[in-house]
Amino acid sequence: MSSIHLRYEVPGDDFTRAGEASGAVKKRLKALGYNSDAIRRVAIAMYEAEINMVIHADGGYCDVDIFPDRVEILLADKGPGIPDVEKAMQAGFSTAPDNVRNLGFGAGMGLPNIKKYTDEMRIETEIGVGTNLYLTVKVNN
Amino acid sequence: MVIKDIIDILQGEVICEGDLNQEIKTACGSDMMSDVLAFVKDQSVLLTGLVNPQVVRTAEMMDMACIVFVRGKEPDQSIINLAESRDITLIKTRFRMFTACGLLYSNGLSGGCEL
Predict the structure, then answer these.
(1) Which of A73-77, A123-127, B38-42 shows the lowest mean pLDDT across its residues?
(2) Which end of chain B is less congested by CB atoms within 10 angstroms, N or C?
(3) Is this prediction's ipTM beyond 0.90?
(4) Which residue out of B32, B33, B34, B76 would a mutagenesis test of the A interface target, given it has the greatest number of A Cβ atoms within 10 Å?
């Protein structure tokens, strides 16, 4: 099965650029003719994850593999890690600072949103080392 | 309703012009982008008092065609450029959030959700 592999850097120091990778992937999927529901789910999940990387982990990179029946995304950072993943998954739980809330994020909806919009989600995290977030969105064209 | 009607109803000013004849059926009002990403379903206008590039990015991810800045908020050039490159119409209105939403709702726009 052929796939397309894409890699994007997510700069950690510039909140205004968060979402560039998600926007680029969205555009690519649209050009490839994927259905709009799947595209939106990929875009939202990836965007939330990008925002998380900028807020919490000083950026990182995304690897995106586009298959005919699914899109797989890895978002990897060298941030502080997530001490309590279960807690981080709770809607409304957030450790984001006030300046992030002023920008319209930090409502504790990031990870719950990502789970909601993806078919598979897996978090590998280690304190002081970083976090890998694996996402899969299935596509029914 | 089309985007042009929204401009009339809200006595708005176009800051960035996309397709003003685009059909709009539902809208959403929020200053919290995480909530927009969580709850919005097929809504095509975002009303917000928040002014930063992430508002445009959020609209982009959600396939929204139009953003209305309430309370007379002015987006800066970087926001306008971003919207322009994504064909998203930007409008500003002097109405506050509650009034702007109420005016659109009473003219037939819905929230697009059951609750």
Answers:
(1) B38-42
(2) C
(3) no
(4) B34
